[in-house]
Amino acid sequence: MLQFGSLNFYHPEDIKNFPEYQWRVEGIFPMTGTAMIFGESRVGKSFLALDLAVKIAHGDTWFGYDVKQSGVIYVAAEGPSGIKNRIAAIEDFTEKELPTNLVVMRDPLDLMDDFVIDSLIEAVTDIGQVIIIDTFNAAVPGIDENAVRDMGLVLKSVRRIVSESECLLIFVYHCGHTAQDRPRGHSSLQAAIDTRVLVTKKSRAARWHVVAQREAEGSVLHEFSLQPRLVTNGRSCIVIPGERTKMGAEPTLSGKNRQMVFDIIKKLSDDAEPKPITFDELMIHASTAISTSQKHAKQRLREALDGLCKSGQIVCNPDQSYLIA
Length: 325
Hints:
The protein is of the alpha/beta class. It folds into two domains: 22-246, P-loop containing nucleotide triphosphate hydrolases (Rossmann fold, 3-Layer(aba) Sandwich), CATH 3.40.50; 256-324, Arc Repressor Mutant, subunit A. It contains nine helices and 16 strands. A hairpin with a 2-residue loop joins β10 and β11 (205-213). α4 runs parallel beside α5 (148-165). The radius of gyration is 21 Å and the shape is globular. The protein starts with a strand and ends with a strand.
């Protein structure tokens, strides 16, 4: 290792001795970092997130994946009144009480408040290394989720929580209003997240799968159902795991234009702090290289961008700027 002032530089041999990457849920959620469970309304995101919280607190497997036990803070920031019945349904189904290392927070949470962040860091350090916030939007009141500045301030708080408490922070998040396969709001948040899990539902069949993973490949999807349960004060649902299905190979960057546009976005982005690229910027760099006449260059660029968005290689912001996924 070399040191220059406060900076450390490691040789390849030094890196071989670094600690192994650790998983909280094997191959899905990291031991320390950030994650997102997102989808449309009424697809079972919150039920899935609470089921995950219970499995981590117990140290049980989750959909067949090994789990390293930890205390969990579950922030029921959206719809806290329903959490009592959800817990009652789980306890009734499993015939055992939830562990005491799972605690629920019902009070409003503001991730833009430094005092709140201080308290949350203190709590997670004492209780356990996992925080699940349901939902993200309920914990950031008053921000413009499409504004890069506002999202940057939120990310500053998120990074501080994770770095100072060495926790796993999971957000339950909504889809975009028009794009049902990506989180809504500015892409700077999703680009900073280590694991993104998409929850979808068709008729009564629900499923989740990893659509982006920083340290592993999302190669499987899991089906699940929400089984209704009657409890003392009404009714709720529990998560019943279904089949595990192999997904197809990762989509390739087929087509000369698509590959060229992807390379331009990657080149123009800053890897340390990813910067969204506007359509006009792309047009300047791509117009002479697109495989068509100048007259149809804009149409071909839009086709390439649409293909990259649908295949998951890039994300599109509401302001029509683009970023590597």
